[in-house]
Design brief:
Layout: H1 12-25, H2 39-56, H3 60-88, H4 96-121, H5 126-132, H6 149-155, H7 164-177, H8 188-215
Helix pairs in contact: 1-2, 1-4, 2-3, 3-4, 4-7, 4-8, 7-8
Length: 216
């Protein structure tokens, strides 16, 4: 039995990340998004309320389901905007500045969205990681997991567990280096998600941004 003290992970960074995705949508013209520009951030804000309520009431299953629903909505909205942006390129209807701004917004949204998925899915999710106390197994092999017990005690990391920033760093590296860099990927679902994220990043940076620059 693991008697390590349980370390509660703050959930607000993940909520802020999804709200930020909604905010990034405001930087895009409405022709490249589903509905009004403010719609996504409004939906995220509304769904965040019952998600946070379920968290503090100890309704773990409800909190988990609402988290999946919220992240799925943001993901689908991002993918739809990416499709609209690609479809708009041949028509030359959008201003080059709008294309550049939209590509940058989608690139950042891609990082935040997949960081949220890694955080929600790895090792059973944030609540399961909290209950275990010490993170020793999961879809990603973080450097702290490879330290021996003595090194962990010396570094004060004997109760280490990944937080949202760790997954955000992983997602950022995937979108910039197209690889996990210092964090090996162990599970198939994580490898599939990272391939999708890298493909979206490559599309926005190499195709959309480059096309917009050529139009200038």
């Amino acid at each position: 039995m693991n008697n390590a003290p349980k370390r509660l992970e703050p959930r607000w960074p993940a909520m802020v990340a999804l709200l930020a995705v909604g905010g990034l949508r405001l930087a895009m013209p409405e022709s490249l998004s589903a509905g009004p520009a403010w719609l996504l951030i409004a939906v995220v804000a509304v769904l965040t309320i019952p998600t946070v309520w379920a968290r503090y009431r100890g309704l773990d299953t409800m909190n988990k389901v609402l988290g999946y629903v919220l992240t799925s909505i943001v993901t689908l909205d991002m993918l739809w905007s990416l499709y609209l942006l690609i479809a708009a390129l041949p028509s030359h209807k959008e201003a080059p500045q709008d294309l550049l701004r939209s590509a940058a917004a989608l690139w950042l949204a891609n990082i935040l969205v997949f960081a949220s998925w890694y955080w929600r899915l790895d090792a059973g999710g944030p609540r399961a990681r909290e209950l275990r106390g010490v993170h020793t197994d999961g879809a990603f092999l973080f450097p702290q997991m490879m330290l021996d017990q003595q090194a962990k005690r010396e570094m004060g990391e004997q109760c280490w567990s990944p937080g949202f920033v760790d997954y955000l760093f992983l997602a950022f590296n995937t979108s910039t280096a197209f690889s996990p860099t210092d964090v090996p990927v162990l599970s198939r679902w994580a490898k599939c998600l990272m391939m999708v994220q890298a493909f979206i990043s490559f599309t926005t940076v190499a195709l959309l941004a480059a096309r917009a620059v050529n139009i200038l």
